[in-house]
Design brief:
The strands form three sheets. A six-stranded mixed beta sheet has the order 3-4-12-9-10-11, with helices on both faces. It has a four-stranded parallel beta sheet with strand order 7-6-5-8, sandwiched between helices. The chain has a two-stranded antiparallel ribbon with strand order 1-2. The longest helix is centred in the middle third of the chain and has 22 residues, at 207-228. 40% of the residues lie in helices and 17% in strands. The chain folds into two domains: 2-37 and 142-301, Rossmann fold, CATH 3.40.50.1100; 42-140, Rossmann fold (3-Layer(aba) Sandwich). It is built from ten helices and twelve strands. It is an alpha/beta fold and 330 residues long. The protein has helices at 42-55, 70-81, 97-108, 119-129, 144-162, 180-192, 207-228, 257-268, 278-291, 323-326; strands at 2-3, 8-9, 13-15, 25-30, 60-66, 85-91, 112-115, 134-136, 171-176, 197-202, 241-244, 296-301.
Amino acid sequence: MTQSAIGNYPTPVERLAGLGTAKTTLWVKRDDLTNPTYGGNKVRKLERLIAEARRRGKRRLVTVGAAGSHHVLATALFGGRAGLEVDAVLVPQLRTPHVAEDLRADVALGAHLFTARTYAGAALGMIAHARRDAYVVPMGGSNVVGALGYVDAAFELADQVKAGALPEPDAIVVTVGSGGTAAGLAAGLRLAGLRSELVGVVVAAPAFFVRFWTRRLARAAFWRHARDHGLAVRSAPARALTFTSSYLGAGYGEPTEAGVKATAIAADAGLSLDATYTAKCFAAALDYVQSARFEHVLYWHTLSSAPLAPLLEGAPDEAALAPALRRLLR
């Protein structure tokens, strides 16, 4: 395992033997283990984003997310470790214990938190705080710079396939919220020569915009990587990414029955899921296994499995949060 500025790579791949069928194997890519303090998919993006902020001589990061945003929490942690101030504009989210803990951890980590009622209002808030010394990080860290972290991840997976750690997946199932993870993987799979179908499980609305943005970002990441590495490519391959919105349910952050069942199944296999992202994605992966359409299915696990308790040291109780922050928990 090699250690970069933030993450530990490669992250393991494991076969979930008890969850496969006679026709289909189920594997997991353990990006929950990217960092022992706080892992998940945000680590790969933030490595690139923080490096870019430093390259530009910035001293602050300005970002946006829901009240329990994993991205905001990761930015507060790793941005702070890099010596950068972190401002975040937050919008309301359905309250769960996990969401409330994430918000409390943001406070404990010293992030400067501001509130908005809607994402449109949050965008205006970001503009208000984006002074000269600030590097603006979009929702989920999902710009071209952040997506390149998952181009790297696709090459990492290709190396693991070549080394025999797992067979080449016929389908890779990944959550799509802000789109950066799926976009980077879509570009990277093609660049690395893997033929896997990437299935993006949409967990945010409006789904049509999520699909549009992710495809657009995948093309941009493909060309940026090709340019940065001097690759002589003429066009981005057409076959890269498909989407399903069937697991979204009532909306972003809203639990689903399929997600609840998937969470229990994953727990028996040693994986922790959250209702917003990974429960819906893992439910889709289980269904793809049962459909027998593919011989090998890989579920890309994007939620940190590190205990949150160390990040809550010194955090205020929920009742002691500023009134504006408490109102974010609906």
